[in-house]
Each structure stands twice: as C-alpha cells, then as structure tokens.
Amino acid sequence: MSQGAVTRILAIRHGETAWNVDTRIQGQLDVPLNDKGRWQASRVAAALADEGITALYSSDLQRAWQTAQPLAGATGLMPRPERGLRERAFGVFEGLTWAEIERDHPEASERWRKRDASFGPEGGERLAEFYARCVACVTALAQRHAGELLALVAHGGVLDCLYRAAARVELNAPRTWQLGNGSINRLLYTPQGLSLVGWADTGHLDGAVHDEFSDALARRAPPGSHARASSAVGSSTSAIDSIRRLVGERGFDLLASTQGDRLVLVLGGPSGTAGTALTVITDVAEHFGPGQIVVGPEVSDLVEAAMSARGALSGIRAADAWPSAPRPVAADDLLPERALAGDGHARRMLAREIYGQLRDAGADLLETLVAYLDNSGSVEATARALFVHPNTVRYRLRRIAEVSGYHPADARSAYVLRLSVTLGRLMTS
Q1: Of 1, 124, 159, 224, which residue has the fewest beta carbons closer than 10 angstroms?
Q2: 94-144 pLDDT, tens per residue?
C-alpha cells in the first residue's frame, strides 16, 4: 500500500431473516433472507448505485450473498465471496434463541453477555479470535484495493468488530451503537488503521410509506398529468380533519397517516397550485402536536412522493440537534444534522451538491472558503493568508454564496459549508 493511500469502505449488514425476527442465533448456519430482507437489499442497491464502488465482497453465507446481488446488478460488479467476512461461529448456541441460551447454558450465557474475550461457545470461536479474523480480513482487502471504494456485505458481529477497531473500543465494552439489518456503514482505511466516517445509515430504508402514500397518490393523478408533491412529518394530533380542510382550501390534496406518535402528511397538487408545501404547513402548524415539523423536498411527480417522505422522516429524527430551527423546517435545511445522524443521502448532498459545485467553480473559491472559516470569518485575516486584497476576498465570498446558496458570513451557513468541505474531502479522497 502506498504511503498515505486511503481506502474508503462501505460495510453493509445483510438484510433481515426470519431468525433475526425470532432473535435466534444464526452464526454460520446458512439462513436465507425473508421478504423484508430482500426489500432491504434492493434499497441498499438503489442507495449505493452511484457511489462509484470499485470492488464488491460478500460473506459466502447466503443471507449476505443474497444482499449483495442487487448491489452487483446496480454497479455491474461481480461479487467476490470472502469467508473471512462470515459471522462468528457460535457452536452449540446456533439455532437457539437468547432465552433458550440463558436457560440451557447459564454459565456460558453469563460469559457471553459480559463479552469475555477468551470465551467461545462449545464448538465456536472465541471472541478475541473472531475479532482478529474480521480485522485481518478487512485490512487485507483494504490494502489490496488501496485508494478505491470498497463495498463489503457482512454480518452484525463482523460490523461490531469493525466499529470497535475504528473507534478504538475495547472488546468487553458494552455496545452503544446500532447494527441494523440493511444498514450502510462508512469507514476509512489508512496505514494507521481503520477510522469511522459514518455509522448505521438506514435512511434508504425509510420507505415504508411508499405503498401507503405514493401508490394512492398515483391513483389520484390523471394519466399523463404532471403534479407536484411534498411531505410533512410532525407529532400526532387529533386535528387531522382541520388540517385536511385547511390544506384543501389552499388547493392541495392530502393523504394523512398516524405512525406511532408521528403524523405523516403527503400533499399533492397540480403544477400550477399557488404556494409551497412549506408555506401551507406553516399556516396549519398550530394544528400539529408539540415539537418540530419537518417538510420534505418538493418532487415533480406524485408517484415520487415517497422520496420526499424519506427526507422528512430523516429530518424529524435529526431535528432535535438544531433546537433553534424554525417551525416548520425544510428537510434540506437539516442536511448537517441528518448527515451526522447517519443519513447517506444527506451526506452525499453536502459532499456533491455543495462541495462539488464549489470545487467545479474554481479552486480559488474553495481555498478562500477554507481560509475564511479558519480565520474566524475575518476578511482581513483571510486576505493576508491568501496574499490578496480584502475586496478580492469579499468578491469570492459573494461568489461562494451564489454558487452554493450559503453565505460564509452567516453562522448557520458557515456550519453547513464547513461540514460539506469535510465530507467532500472524505468522499473524494
């Protein structure tokens, strides 16, 4: 591996199986995906199709292998089986539920729960051995593909080991991070080892609203019509009828659903409808329950409403990180919070739409932006650092605002720009 070469890694957990649902230990038993798992695999493929993956490896156990197939189709890459990415061998634990293990193997269960690194179930791997195997396998693959973007489809136990290696967390430390089925996790490998970029991205799986909303909207839209749609998510309320009436008065159709403590709305209307979803939701915000309301981006076709809903759902999960945000707030205004919460789409938007636009507009803009942020927003200090006149800095700052939509002199915009530069560098390094 060349000195300083960076390998970007997408570590993907396989989709759901029936045994995942039953909390039954799979280990190295060859359990297939269930229907939900196959759907999750298709969503992973759609989310990563344009990432520029150069190599695809998968555990040879079929739940991982089946997860890799849609991604192979989306990227045109032949998946390569890798036994080193297999789940931990759990010996006598395999096929048992957690409750059955605790009942039938109480002493072994205790050592397992305490994450004893020297413990291995009868016929299985010791934790320390499993960890060493996973890290060695991924290290070898990263070195083989130095400077590339590598996709690995593996298992929860494997991902747990990679997280610990990247975050420098001891094997016996309790797990505080998520390992969801179909999650996308981002790491970097350098000669210094693994490091974390993003973890537990499941934004691509927030499509449960698709059948409920977008199919119904499609039925409402006349053949060949062009309509626009947007979505809004807030806390549930008993005033849905009032919201429906007020939204209708503004020329929009409405589909509404309560999902737990959330109210999910999809607004649709002809292209010529006056006003935007954000202004409409602002007008009816008092009829929502307490807390933030997030409005998803407008889409040009009613059948694509699920895309807007996914943005809104991602935003509502991250909204608490910006307490002073307006109510309602656009999902795209929460890109930094969504990216930090694990939303891969938000991360790509920051890296490609903002950083990428500035990079393509000229190196002097990026250079000026970084210098301005590094010098605490001082035009004069930035000018001295760049050996240019302060008026040149002011002109470039205006150009940055024109190109990106964010002015570096504004505190919120500066935060967005700083994160976009960081992510842009990581995702293009």
Answers
A1: 224
A2: 999 988 999 999 999 999 989 999 999 999 999 999 999 999 999 999 999
* Pick from 147, 137, 141, 196: nearest CA to 3: 147
Give the separation between CA 223 and CA 216, rounded to whole angstroms. Answer: 14
Whether residue 364 sits in one domain with residue 315: no
Residue 313 CB partners (closer than 8 Å, separation 6+): 206, 209, 233, 264, 294
Bond before 323 cis per omega within 30 degrees = no
Report the SS3 class of residue 298: coil
Q: Which of 149, 180, 204 is the last residue of a domain?
A: 204
Phi-psi region of 240 (alpha: psi -120 to 50; beta: other; left: phi over 0): alpha
β-strand pairing of 149-154 with 227-235: unpaired
CB-based contacts of 107, cutoff 8 Å, min separation 6: none
Does residue 293 share a domain with residue 390?
A: no
Burial (Cβ within 10 Å: 0-12, 13-18, ≥19) of residue 353: middle
Nearest Cα to Cα of residue 310 among 266, 252, 340, 261: 266
Answer yes or no: do 139 and 100 share one domain: yes
Instruction: Give the 3-state secondary structure of residue 325.
Output: coil
Q: Are residues 199 and 210 in the same domain?
A: no
Q: Are 211 and 199 in the same domain?
A: no
Does any domain span residue 354?
yes
Split into its structural domains, the chain has a count of: 3
Structural domain boundaries, residue 101: 7-204
Active site residues: 14, 87
Taking CA atoms, 293 is separated from 57, 133, 219, 240, 327, in Å, by 40, 46, 27, 15, 6
Is 213 in the same domain as 195?
no
pLDDT, tens only, 174-231? 888 889 999 999 999 999 999 988 888 887 886 443 333 334 444 444 444 445 778 8
Q: How far apart are CA 86 and CA 89, in angstroms?
A: 8
CATH number assigned to the domain comprising residue 398: 1.10.10.2840
- Residue found by looking up tokens 């938007």 in the block: 349
Q: Which domain CATH number covers 73?
A: 3.40.50.1240
Structure-token pair, residue 198 = 């993003």
Contact 346, 422 (CB under 8 A): no
Tokens of 105: 């193997």
Stated pTM of the model: 0.56
CA–chain centroid gap for 185, Å, is 8
